[in-house]
Design goal:
The protein is an alpha+beta fold. The chain contains seven helices and six strands. The longest helix has 15 residues.
Length: about 400
């Protein structure tokens, strides 16, 4: 009888945990959360403007949000201490695929041979405006690099559609029943949602946007339902369309990759990884170690897309140990994070360091505190894992060491 009770309690706990598919992030499991989760309704001042027209450029107060602006409202839940769904911590410990907005508030400085260097917090990610949490507009850039989206208007809802609508036809939005982040099946008669509630074709870029309308659909991707912390064996599986979606705001980067003086690294559905590069990726284990194989080649610090057009073809669990093959392609998130990182240009690693051991933040840097060094690489001790002579992770594909 006692064993039966223990088993029953165990089953109840497992069914209640937010880490299982179908119950992850219950607030958004219906596509959009309940209205009062974000908006103040009862007890609102009389004569308040109740407009929720997302084409309006009016101040966020017209939405009666619980935060002073859209992003502050989102962070009421998504900055919850220790929560799996948190994207803002007080120590850089949220190892989500997108990154931790903590790094926007961290500026590092150091001196080498009498020369001073600086890694500004503004350069560490997308500078969302969340005044309640001390997050302000980018002081360096007035608009998106490679595009025109205004920095002063950047927020969570610039990319994520809080009402989980999808446009089968531009101007005719339909609310979905599930966000499709974990491969959920929509209810009968309702359209599938988008990965992470990302805005689709026709999305206007949030309440404070200015003249931006998305032309590319949300990417095909699937996150692991077993926690948001990214590891080599538990991570987002990327199918296709990520770079094209990023180009909704950063179009200049994607278009310039075709050649010319402004050419960038190839990225997108058409940037297929040739056999030589795939072989490099699969065999490369680190500087001086190239005896690996495809079955154990995947490195979460250097992800790629697998050319899938349906989430049914993606499995974050089984694909976690598989290297590049077939029609795999490079995407923006191969080298960058979507939210923020510890490094300039939202890099997954420090692009300016010859050796990973020389990455900044580094012990002794001005501004570095606590576990900043360890957390900058998602809890991975890069020296013990790869050695002091490990070079930049560009070598995972472009083996030069």
């Amino acid at each position: 009888m006692n064993k039966f009770k223990v088993l029953l309690v165990t089953i109840i706990v497992l069914l209640s945990t937010p880490l299982l598919s179908g119950v992850t992030c219950a607030f958004h499991e219906g596509g959009e959360g309940y209205c009062e989760g974000c908006h103040t309704i009862l007890g609102s001042p009389e004569n308040q403007d109740w407009s929720t027209d997302e084409s309006s450029d009016g101040p966020s107060t017209t939405l009666i949000l619980k935060g002073s602006d859209p992003s502050s409202t989102c962070l009421r839940c998504h900055a919850e201490s220790g929560a799996d769904h948190s994207v803002l911590s007080n120590d850089g410990s949220r190892f989500t695929p997108g990154g931790d907005f903590y790094w926007l508030q961290k500026t590092f400085s150091w001196t080498v041979e009498g020369l001073s260097y600086l890694s500004r917090g503004d350069s560490h990610g997308h500078n969302i405006v969340a005044l309640d949490y001390g997050l302000n507009p980018d002081e360096r850039l007035s608009q998106a690099p490679g595009g025109s989206y205004p920095s002063a208007a950047l927020g969570c809802t610039s990319c994520h559609d809080p009402h989980a609508k999808t446009n089968g036809n531009v101007g005719n939005p339909v609310t979905t029943s599930v966000p499709s982040s974990y491969g959920e099946e929509p209810s009968t008669g309702t359209p599938p949602g988008t990965f992470r509630l990302l805005g689709g074709v026709g999305y206007a870029g949030g309440q404070l946007r200015s003249g931006v309308t998305f032309r590319s659909p949300a990417p095909i991707a699937e996150a692991s339902p077993f926690g948001w912390a990214e590891t080599d064996s538990n991570h987002t599986a990327y199918g296709s369309g990520m770079s094209e979606w990023c180009a909704n705001c950063h179009g200049g980067f994607l278009s310039s990759r075709m050649g010319g003086a402004a050419a960038k690294h190839p990225a997108g559905n058409g940037a297929k990884i040739p056999a030589e590069i795939s072989n490099n990726y699969n065999s490369y284990e680190g500087t001086g170690h190239v005896g690996g194989g495809q079955a154990s080649a995947y490195l979460a610090l250097v992800p790629f897309e697998v050319d899938a057009t349906s989430t049914s073809l993606l499995d974050p669990s089984s694909s976690s140990g598989t290297g590049a093959a077939g029609n795999a392609n490079v995407m923006c998130l191969t080298c960058h994070r979507a939210h923020a990182s510890a490094f300039p240009n939202v890099g997954r690693w420090d692009f300016k360091a010859t050796f990973m051991a020389d990455s900044h933040p580094k012990a002794g840097d001005g501004g570095a505190s606590g576990s900043d060094v360890l957390h900058s690489y998602y809890g991975r001790d890069m020296i013990s894992e790869f050695g002091k002579s490990q070079r930049q992770l560009c070598s995972k594909c472009h083996r030069k060491d």
